[in-house]
Specification:
This protein has strands at residues 5-10, 13-18, 27-32, 48-53, 64-67. It is an all-beta fold. 0% of the residues are buried.
Length: 70
């Protein structure tokens, strides 16, 4: 299932803010596709993929921040 939300960037930091709280004790897969480009037009050679698992309690944190350098 996809998680809806908004994506923004500031310098070399990309932020994803989910529209709703993430489910507890759930593993999510995050993908940044290779077609993303920096201001100079550089892109990843392949998709950048990682997983994370939410905790057992809702902490009301509704954002994920991942610094990305391409």
């Amino acid at each position: 299932d996809e998680v809806e939300g908004t994506i923004s960037s500031d310098g070399d930091t990309v932020s994803f803010i989910p529209a709703n709280n993430l489910s507890m004790e759930t593993t999510y897969t995050t993908t940044i596709t290779a077609d993303i480009q920096d201001k100079a037009g550089n892109s990843f050679e392949t998709d950048y993929v990682w997983n994370f698992t939410t905790g057992t309690e809702n902490d009301n944190v509704r954002y994920i921040v991942m610094p990305i350098r391409v």
